[in-house]
Fold this protein.
Amino acid sequence: MKQGLETRQVLQQKLSPLQIQTIKLIEMPVQVLEQHVREELNNNPVFEDEAPQGGDSEGPKDVSISEVEEREQNSSDDSYDYSDDDIPSYNLKVNNWGKDERPEYNTFSVRQSFTQSLMEQLGFQQLTDHERSVATFIIGSLDDGGYLRRDLESLVDDMAFRSGIETDVPEIERLLKIIQQFEPSGVGARDLRECLIIQLEDKRQTPSVRNAIRVLDECFDDFSGRHFQRVMARLHLSKEEMQEVLAEIKKLNPAPGGQIDDSYTDQAQQVVPDFRLDYDNGELVLSMPRFQVPELRINRRYSEILEQSRYSKQRSEKEAATFVKQKIDSAKWFIEALRQRQNTLERTMKAIIAYQHDFFIDGDETNLRPMVLKDIAERTGFDISTISRVVNSKWIETHFGVFPLKYFFSEGLENQDGEEVSTREIKKVLQDCVSKEDKRNPLTDDDLVEELSNRGYKVARRTIAKYRSQLDIPKARLRREL
């Protein structure tokens, strides 16, 4: 085997501290950003979060970044190299947050979490500590729809192995019955049939409600398959009685867990828009008023330390200057990263508004143009990954509602005129067709293809089926009514 040395040139791209800081800040939604700024103010002693009041000449003064850079350049002429010595482990912290009240938000609260709601109701039950532990485990085993999809024997084993709780199937069934009495009605059911029956049993027992319970209890499969004539014949129900049964069951909620939004954790129970768009005198006006970053400045006292260290021969002062220089560099990067974040978000949002101008006038979904990340990247000059970070977890408040920025992005299809239309527009038209159909003879997917074609949209049958599924619209057979 031949051995030897080889020299190769490899081109690598490394991100600067400023670029890394900017990327992190761009990804942050407004509430996380505020918390991050507070942490920086507390952790970096060179920061001042507000300009001094009045003309008082006493006490420390603020200095701009340009002044700091000038003093650093002057200090760099000194022959003493700060980097040769170890940085002392100083722990300097000051609370630089101003006394002003926090900026006012237009907050949009999300509902109490599903698990929280059930645990709160569990607290009102007269149970032993053991029973409460078993019930808590059952609640934690419910899925997003509020169902207990697992068999009770496996729950017994799980409680023993994972939590050291000894129980049996009869005890779980008894406690499950208690949970099934909680709100929202139908929670804790093991299947759809049980969920709907629980809700019906909670209602006033009118003849139509009792008939609905019979239908679900005795003819659930036929009812699910929309074979209403079989159900009527087996239970000896008239057409009017069957219609009343359908009306009662339509009022029920097949996914009671979905009534309570669990998409946010206990630590984030609010949606705070990063942007606000007003429609004033025929013009769209964009602002970012929901979060006001304090005017971060560098305290003059620390820049003076750098300047004074030029004339000092004491090691302790040189060490202090090294520490201060690191903190000032960190502060400069953070301030500049905040500026770049503001600029990036503003330019991106303005590009989105320009692209979707007609939609932002009145909020009509049919005016949404097909738009992907690449379209906005080309308009702003930013990288697609940057646009993706801006769009993620950001919200805008408009005069017709609050939307995540992701809402405005969608693929497109061509209509019969060769114009590209948004898939959202097609879905809206599809929904409109289904809502206006004759429920006694609902439109099949082939019928919907023809209906959309008559309206000028060229859509394949498989595309109709996909969009129908995404919109939670059942097949024609399952939409049929008496």
